[in-house]
């Protein structure tokens, strides 16, 4: 059965909504404005892979109260959503899948445990948990508490790349609609994730499908059913489409990053429908470590110029769906989407349908989005080709003609990719030691390979801190400046120049010494009605940061942001553990243990001040420092 999706349906339905639905939407939005994402990674050094249960909870007089929980297919990154408050985090390896901890299972806390102070919006980073033995849980039993929290149902795993069945009810049209009308409730039930429909195969090119407003992965059934599964593997991104687009785009970037760090795939194609194009384009523009793998981007019926009725909804609806603020024409989000151009190495095609309607009250449209918005000149300027079809907003996803052109583009992208791309690789044998040797090891480390003598994007590889020697690869042969990074540590040497050759193994050795550091990102404060989970607001361009001062007993340092630093220079400065400030970020290194005062002065802003603790060998990224505009 065809599912009617798209922004037009939202506004038609909005006119006939009952009070109960609007009340639930207002509740969801109110909760969203006081919520924060908690993110971190579960580290399990056991070779046995079982599901992991991660729980955020608060302690009460009569026990614990669950704030949120996540189920992971295996150890790795997680996300949870909680209200502003103080929480602890406990994780365990659920070997028998009963959602209950047993003494034979590995477990761990964030810290000893440490309190996690959740701000009223945004993201809390770096909340890593290392699983080990002989842990005392905060509650005698979890199964009842977790099932009550999630309405008697077990949450699906939210590990990036978790296997899923497209026929699962969680991917239904009803579920997709719920993600639009109650995005926070959807996230707490199902999370936000890239799912695999088959086990990962390095011989197949992944194609990531991103649905639109009120949509679900089932919208892509026709595409997936007609895909050559011997050459391609389908990935689907399922997200609460009513949430702020900065949040869902950020989570998409994060999931792709997690998959790249795990699989080091060489190519990735992205296909997005409707609002999914607005979610995907920032991922295409971002200079992340996986950037060189992006070879193809296809947007289908995307409202690049925004939607006027979203503006009407923001101004007049008794309950505003968060994403409307981003989809209205001229929004800050749409401006950011076109802040840069798509790299010419990425083949971009713009698909649209022209079978719709038009009147004095509504310009020509595809029965959902106006053609003027879909064919925004900024999007057309980046496209290799603009292709129109005699389809409407929904039928374009099940059109044989569209599928034929899609297959032609897939074949052409493969035929015209860089012929000089070498598939012969080199390897790197990495050793590291800690000085002193008996310190607490960091939970995460990364090897950074920056191509020597040019501004090419660096690559990253995860390093196991608990293995003193390990082999990394395969690596594209060329000359690199190689560095090892662990936050809270100084690495000696800070870089080693190596020539990685085809079929050869190079060697690199490093020593890590604990050092105190204070670092952060400066953002703008948000109004109470525009403060959502996962959302940060950049400082306006007119705001110039004058100074960042760090002071303590008999100690004072001041930084002024540099106007002229390239990304590579910033990276080299950071890897060398040298103080710097660039644009809206800064870092102070080699600090004695203690509590420091941070003071930030910027044009047009109130003076910002806070206290922050530095611990050599331990660094948790703080929430952005939010300046209040005068």
Describe this structure in words.
With about 625 residues, the protein is an alpha/beta fold. The chain has four domains: about 5-30 and about 160-415, Rossmann fold (3-Layer(aba) Sandwich), CATH 3.40.50.1820; about 35-150, Sandwich (Immunoglobulin-like); about 425-515, Sandwich (Immunoglobulin-like), CATH 2.60.40.10; about 515-625. Helices cover about 20% and strands about 30% of the residues. It has 15 helices and 33 strands. A hairpin with a 2-residue loop joins strand 27 (about 545-550) and strand 28. Helix 4 packs across helix 5 and helix 7 (about 245-265) crosses helix 8. Residues about 1-25 and about 420-425 have low confidence and may be disordered.
Secondary structure layout:
Elements: H1 7-14, H2 19-33, E1 35-43, E2 52-60, E3 63-72, E4 77-83, E5 85-93, E6 107-109, E7 116-118, E8 123-124, E9 129-130, H3 143-149, E10 162-163, H4 173-181, H5 183-190, E11 193-196, E12 205-210, H6 221-225, E13 232-238, H7 245-263, E14 268-273, H8 275-285, E15 294-300, H9 308-316, H10 324-327, H11 332-337, E16 347-353, H12 371-374, H13 377-382, E17 385-389, H14 400-415, E18 426-434, E19 445-451, E20 459-463, E21 469-475, E22 478-485, E23 489-492, E24 496-500, E25 505-514, E26 516-524, E27 545-552, E28 555-559, H15 567-575, E29 580-582, E30 585-591, E31 594-602, E32 608-614, E33 625-627
Parallel strand pairs: 1-8, 1-9, 10-11, 12-13, 12-14, 14-15, 15-16, 16-17, 18-25, 26-33
Antiparallel strand pairs: 1-4, 2-3, 2-5, 5-6, 5-7, 11-13, 18-21, 19-20, 19-22, 22-24, 23-25, 26-30, 27-28, 27-31, 29-30, 31-32
């Amino acid at each position: 059965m065809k599912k009617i999706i798209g922004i037009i349906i939202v506004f038609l339905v909005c006119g006939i909504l009952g009070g109960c639905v609007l009340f639930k939407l207002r509740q969801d939005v109110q909760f969203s404005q006081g919520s924060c994402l908690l993110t971190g990674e579960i580290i399990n050094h056991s070779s046995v892979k079982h599901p992991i249960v991660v729980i955020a909870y608060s302690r009460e007089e009569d026990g614990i109260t669950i704030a949120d929980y996540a189920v992971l297919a295996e150890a790795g990154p997680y996300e949870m959503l909680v209200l502003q408050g103080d929480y602890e985090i406990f994780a365990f390896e659920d070997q028998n899948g009963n959602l209950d901890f047993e003494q034979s299972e590995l477990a761990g806390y964030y810290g000893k445990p440490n309190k996690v102070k959740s701000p009223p919006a945004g993201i809390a980073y770096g909340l890593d948990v290392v699983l080990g033995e002989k842990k005392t849980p905060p509650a005698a039993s979890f199964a009842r508490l977790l099932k009550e929290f999630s309405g008697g149902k077990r949450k699906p795993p939210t590990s990036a790349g978790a296997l899923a069945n497209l026929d699962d009810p969680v991917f239904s049209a009803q579920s997709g609609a719920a993600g639009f009308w109650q995005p926070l409730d959807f996230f707490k039930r199902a999370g936000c994730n890239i799912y695999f429909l088959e086990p990962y195969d390095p011989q197949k090119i992944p194609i990531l499908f991103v649905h639109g407003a009120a949509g679900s992965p089932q919208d892509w059934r026709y595409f997936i059913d007609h895909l050559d599964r011997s050459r391609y593997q389908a990935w689907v991104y399922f997200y609460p489409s009513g949430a702020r687009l900065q949040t869902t785009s950020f989570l998409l970037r994060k999931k792709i990053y997690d998959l790249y760090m795990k699989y080091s795939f060489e190519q990735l194609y992205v296909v997005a429908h409707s609002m999914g194009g607005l979610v995907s384009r920032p991922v295409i523009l971002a200079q992340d470590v996986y950037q060189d793998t992006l070879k193809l981007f296809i947007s289908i019926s995307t409202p690049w110029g925004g939607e006027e009725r979203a503006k009407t909804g923001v101004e007049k609806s008794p309950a505003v769906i968060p994403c409307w603020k981003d989809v209205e024409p001229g929004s800050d989000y749409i401006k950011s989407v076109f802040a840069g151009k798509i790299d010419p190495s990425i083949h971009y095609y713009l698909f649209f349908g022209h079978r719709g309607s038009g009147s004095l009250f509504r310009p020509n449209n595809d029965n959902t989005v106006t053609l003027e918005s879909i064919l925004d000149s900024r999007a057309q300027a980046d496209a290799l080709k603009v292709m129109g079809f005699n389809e409407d907003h929904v039928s374009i996803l099940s059109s044989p003609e569209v599928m034929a052109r899609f297959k032609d583009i897939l074949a052409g992208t493969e035929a015209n990719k860089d012929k000089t791309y070498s598939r012969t690789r080199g390897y790197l044998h990495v050793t590291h030691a800690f000085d002193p040797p008996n310190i607490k090891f960091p939970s995460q480390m990364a090897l950074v390979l920056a191509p020597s003598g040019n501004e090419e994007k660096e690559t990253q590889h995860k390093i196991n801190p608990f293995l003193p020697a390990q082999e990394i690869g395969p690596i594209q042969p060329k000359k690199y400046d190689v560095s090892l990074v662990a936050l809270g540590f100084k690495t000696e040497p800070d870089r080693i120049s190596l020539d990685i050759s085809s079929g050869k193994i190079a060697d690199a050795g490093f020593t890590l010494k604990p050092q105190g550091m204070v670092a952060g990102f400066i953002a703008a404060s948000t109004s109470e009605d525009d403060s959502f989970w996962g959302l940060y607001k950049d400082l306006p361009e007119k705001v110039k940061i004058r100074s960042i001062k760090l002071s303590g007993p008999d100690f004072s340092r001041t930084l002024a942001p540099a106007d002229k630093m390239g990304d590579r220079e910033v990276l080299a400065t950071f890897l060398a553990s040298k103080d710097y400030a660039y644009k809206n970020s800064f870092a102070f290194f080699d600090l004695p243990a203690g509590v420091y005062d941070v003071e930030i002065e910027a044009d047009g802003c109130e003076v910002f001040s806070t206290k922050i603790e530095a611990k050599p060998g331990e660094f948790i990224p703080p929430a952005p420092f939010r300046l209040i505009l005068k």
